[in-house]
Amino acid sequence: MNAENTQDQRQDQGQAELSLSGNQLLPQLVAHLREHRAKLRNEWASRIRDAHLLEAMTPQEMAAETTSVYDNYVEVLETGSVEALQHYARDLSERIIPRGVETHEVVGIVLLLRDVLARSLFEKYQRDFALLNQILDAYEPAANRIANTVAVSFVDERERVIRQQQDAIKELSTPVLPVRERLLILPIIGVLDSERARQLTEQLLSGIRTHRAKVVVIDITGAPDVDETVANHLVQTVDASRLMGASVIITGLSPTIAQTLVTIGVDLSKMNTIGDLQGGLEEAERLLGYTVTRKVVTDGS
Known about the structure:
By secondary structure, this protein is of the alpha/beta class. The protein is built from ten helices and five strands; from the N terminus they run ααααααββαβαβαβα. Strands 1-2-3-4-5 form a five-stranded mixed beta sheet, with helices on both faces. The radius of gyration is 33 Å and the shape is rod-shaped. The termini are far apart. The N terminus is likely disordered.
C-alpha cells in the first residue's frame, strides 16, 4: 500500500515538473523569436504581400506597422498581459482604420504571423518531438488569445468610428440654422425615423437655448413620409419647444403626410402649419414683430 502511494506521489511530482517545465519554455521561446526577429518579420511581410493584404498602406507604412506588431506580439507572449495587448490593439486600430484597412486584413495578418512563428519553432525543435510538443502547447494558446484579442479590439474600434461617422452625418442632415435674431430654421431632408426624430428634438432644443430663439420654422418639404411614432414625436417636439419659450411653425406638409396626421389622430391644434417655407418665414417674422413689405421695382427707377 505504501509502495503504491509512493508511486502515485512520484507520478504527481513528475506531472508537476512537466507542467512547470512547460511554463519555463516561454522565455526560451521568446528568446528565439527575438534572436531571429529580422528574418521572421521579413518572411511575415513577404507572406502579407503574397496574400494581397494591407495594400492600402505604403511600403514604408507597412514596414513600420509590421515591425511594431511583431515586437508587441512577442512582448505579449513574454508577459501574458492581455490589458497591454488590448491597449496596443486599440492604438493600432486607430492608426490603420483611416487608411482603409479592413477587418479581414487585420485578422489575416495576425494569423499569418502566428503561422510564421509556429513554423520557425517547428524547424528549431523538430528533432525533439517531446520538447516540440511542449513548446507548441505553451505557444498555441497564447497565440490564439492574441489573435482573438486583436480581432475583437479592431472590430470594437471600427464600430466606434462608424458610430461617430453616423452621428456626424445625422448632424449634417438636420442642421439648426439661425436666420436672424431669435429665428431658427430646421430643414428636414430624407427619411425621418424614430432615432433621427429624437436627435432632431435634442438639436432643436439646444439651438433654441443657444440662440435664445422665439420662433422656429421646421420645414419638412424634403421628408417623403412619416409614421405614427414620428408624427407623435413631432408633436412632442412642438410642446418641448413651447416650454423653452419658442413657437414652432411647420411648413412643407405633403398631402400624404397631411393625410397620415389626420388618420392617426394627431392633435393639429398644437401645430401651426403653413404651406411653404416662404410663407412660414413671413409668419415667423410677423410673430417676431417685423413688418414684411414688398418693393415694386419699375423701369427707369
